[in-house]
Write a structure and sequence with these properties.
The protein is mostly helical and 166 residues long. It has helices spanning 7-21, 25-38, 43-55, 59-89, 93-106, 113-126, 132-139, 142-165. The protein folds into 2 domains: 1-57; 77-143, no CATH class. Helices cover 80% and strands 0% of the residues. Helix 2 (25-38) runs antiparallel to helix 3, helix 4 (59-89) runs antiparallel to helix 5 (93-106) and helix 5 crosses helix 7. The longest helix has 31 residues, at 59-89.
Amino acid sequence: MKDKSGKDHEDFLSRARNCLDHGLYRNACELAEMRLEILPGDIEARVILCEALWGMGRDEEVQEILREIEEIILGYSEIYVRMGKICEKRDLLPEAILYYRRFIDLNPLSPLRADIEQQLAFMREKLGGTTKSEEAKTSADPATEHLLNVLPTLRKWLDNLDRSKR
């Protein structure tokens, strides 16, 4: 279980990284699986699991897990659209803009992007021309930043796996 200080999480990451650094992929895999039994939503444990499986040559499993991680992250990001709509209905337009921008940051290829961009333009106009650079100053929060840092790594791994299969 995770304690409030995050010590358990740091300990897990330290132990797992140590295993990976020393080529102890099976041990890292076991640590990640134990962590996921306790905290199934732990994305970093899944990433450790991927690294361990990859080190053991189990590429197909890695591909499946990476796709699951990406779906989880993108699924969680839909909360930003919902929060944007709630704020918009309450006429909290700066907050609505913030949430819509976060969604777009996490889902640049989303089919919803065009509709959201149109809504953002309408809200900016209503607010008197808020610029994208002004929004960017307030749009980053630690959780979003973390997700934005994890997604490119996941996509890179998927691309590498796809290329290695050709």
